[in-house]
Amino acid sequence: MNDKIPNMDYDADEVIDSFKSKFKWPDKDDVEVVVKPKNLPKKILLSLLTTVIVGAGAYYMMIPALNFKSTDFYTFIFLLIAVFVGSFFLFIGGNKRAESSAYFKKKSVVPIVLVVVILAVMLVGWLVGCTFFRAKDYSNLVTVQESDFSEDFSDIKYDQVPRLDATTSKVLADQQLGSLSEYKSQYVVSSESTQINYQGHPARVAYLEYADVFKWFNNTKNGLPAYMLIDLVSQKVTAVNCIDKFGEGIKYSPTELFNEKLIRHLRFQYPTAIMDTPNFEIDDEGHPYWITPVLDKTIGLFGGTDVKGAIITDALNGESTYLDIDAVRNDKTYNWIDVVYSESLLIQQYNYHGKLSQGFWNSIIFQNDVNVASQGRGNIAMDDDVWVYTGVTSSESDASNFGFIFCNQRTKELRYYKNGGAIESSAQQSAEDAVQNYGYRAIFPILLDIEEQPTYFMSLYGDSYTVKGYALVNLDDKTVVGTGLLDVEKSDAGALNAAVENYIAALKAKNIVDASADADDYKVDSDEDTIIDENGEDAAKLNTVSGEITDIMTSVNDGNTVYYLQINGKYYYIAVTDCMDVLLMKKGDTVTVTFDKDSDTFVQAKSIKK
Predict the structure, then answer these.
(1) Which H or E run includes 98?
(2) Phi, psi dihedral angles at 352 (to 5 degrees)
(3) Does residue 89 contact residue 95 with C-beta atoms inside 8 Å?
(4) CB 235, CB 466: distance < 8 Å
(5) Helix (H) or strand (E) run with residue 487 in it
(6) I need a surface site. Which of 327, 364, 466, 493 has the fewest CB within 10 A?
(7) CA pair distance 496, 58, nearest whole angstrom
(8) Which pairs count as long-range contacts for 257-260, CB under 8 Å and 24+ apart, including other chains?
(9) 3-state secondary structure 267-329
(10) CA 593/CA 563 separation, integer angstroms
(11) Residue stretches of the chain with pLDDT short of 50
């Protein structure tokens, strides 16, 4: 018999608790029943089918580029994942049964991990391409060539530069479209227009849009019948009828719906292309095309946006051709293309160059030689291309420019000129102050060379947006101003000549040029047969009609009151701002109307006199 006493050095409570734990029934919160749903393959298939259907609809509406460098692509992927996860949850009954919900939670780890991986890729791609790490690469997106102003601008004639900007062109196009009964009320002029060189002449082209969805239903079968061509020198607006000229209307445009909507039509043809906003252009025969820049991200995954090519789409039949950017620049067959690089992209690339050339921290702290493009921009034709013009100022102040740049919208050639002076808005104000008693406003200025002096050239316009005169303002000294007004000189050439004569006289008065400077070197030939009426129109080319007013109606268009006078069965309309005398006219008065283009019902009048 073992007389040894067992070790009693233990706690009785611990022994009891240990024994009880072996037979303890678990709490409800400690149980997770994971039950595989019935017919799981079928439910996965249904989830996939739902994702495909919803994804197809989303793709049709979103039309994202299927490209890893496009943020829209990742948004689309996240949407597909969310649709699959949501439909799978519903099909297995996760919203009704706890065991199905538990199964869903267990399996949802995979899509969560996938989303996290995609977000990580996006983050790394952004970090690799952010300006903090890649400042030098951003500054080299564009090559800036310093150039000589007098040499480059010696052949540009100030009487052939654009007299209209995008805003005034739009107003004149609206007025012309409103006078054409076959288009009236069915279409409106697009707010987007493109400045081009048409047969060696500066012009703007604008496409039409359906006035509303009902007008689209009524007219989409034949497409848009015409486009607007605005001559920026003569200010003549023409509605080019594509059906008469080419046998069919414009079937593909941004104003269409469904498959004929331009960007959707292009996406189906080029699913991976990252596309910029399409530009409406015409070739030398007037055939309408869409020019769509194709972009590339050259720094990291999302940075360093640049153009790598362009899609040329026939606006009538939708046939498209892709051109590499070198072909756009060098193939003479496509010299009629004027806009491949958008104004905003060119200005953005120059600002990268101006701010980041000496590194990221210099752009933030020291700011040595940091400069940016000034506010506002204009366009001018040079070397048979369209160039974007804007001033260059410091990053801290825009009181004056210390230079300016010209950017070619087809080739991306960028020229910098070290001619500093008044900022554009300041020059506009100087021109408007010179004619403040008339209340005229100045369009965005264009730089020209007069007596080797960089000179801002501006058209002056009134409430009706028709050109009323011209102004020249010295870049270096904005107090040197010369103006010429149409209602004083009675001809367009006379107004131009008066502006340059007054400007050179002001230069001489300030001793900026010597006495040998001669305004006759810049004057244009006056056409004695061209007499400008009170609205700035060539009276010799206008038609006239006289008769008794049988009816008077009014409307308000864009804030302007318009009078419609019925004479000989037709309504002749004119804005009060263009003819104050119309306020005093009444039924029974006999008046004489001058007009440019006749119409069946409504005719836009240039002047109306008793």
Answers:
(1) helix 98-107
(2) -60, -45
(3) yes
(4) yes
(5) helix 486-489
(6) 364
(7) 56
(8) 257/213, 257/216, 257/220, 260/220, 260/223, 260/318
(9) HHHCCCCEECCCEEEECCCCCEEEEEEEEEEEECCCEEEEEEEEEEEECCCCCEEEEEHHHHH
(10) 13
(11) 1, 23, 25-26, 28, 30-31, 527-540
* Beta carbons of 607 and 534 less than 8 angstroms apart: yes
d(CA 336, CA 57): 38
DSSP type of residue 526: P
- Please, which residues have CB within 8 angstroms of residue 268's CB and are 6 or more apart in sequence? 259
Neighbours of 475 (CB within 10 A): 25
- Three-class SS of residue 172? helix
Q: Token pair for residue 481?
A: 């101003």
Which of 145, 189, 177, 590 lies closest to 408, judged by CA? 145
pLDDT tens sequence across 88-108: 888 888 777 777 778 888 888
Q: So what's the pLDDT on residue 325? A: 95
- In order of 191, 259, 421, 432, the CA distances from 270 in angstroms are 27, 14, 46, 49
Q: How far apart are CA 574 and CA 570, in angstroms?
A: 13
In this structure, are residues 370 and 353 in contact, taking their beta carbons and an 8 Å threshold?
A: no
Written as one string, the DSSP assignment of 390-408 is EEEEESS--SEESEEEEEE
Give the number of other CB atoms < 10 A from CB of residue 182. 12
Alpha carbons 252 and 261: distance in angstroms, whole number: 6
The first and second tokens of residue 456, run together, are 């801002």
Look at residues 221, 194, 192 and name the one whose alpha carbon lies nearest to residue 205: 194
CA dist., res. 329 & res. 294, Å (int): 14
Contact between residue 311 and residue 273 where contact means Cβ atoms under 8 Å apart: yes
Q: How far apart are CA 592 and CA 568, in angstroms?
A: 12
Structure tokens at 529: 């047969």
Q: What residue has token string 């090559």?
A: 143
CA dihedral 69, 377, 281, 144 (to 10 degrees): -60
Do 456 and 427 form a contact (C-beta atoms < 8 A)? yes
Q: How far apart are CA 131 and CA 568, in angstroms?
A: 69
Tell me the chain's radius of gyration from C-alpha atoms: 34
Q: For residues 464 and 560, is the Cβ–Cβ distance under 8 A?
A: yes
What is the per-residue pLDDT for 4? Answer: 53
* Distance, CA of 593 to CA of 533 (rounded, Å): 12
Model pLDDT, residue 36: 77
| Closest of 205, 191, 208, 204 to residue 233, by C-alpha | 204
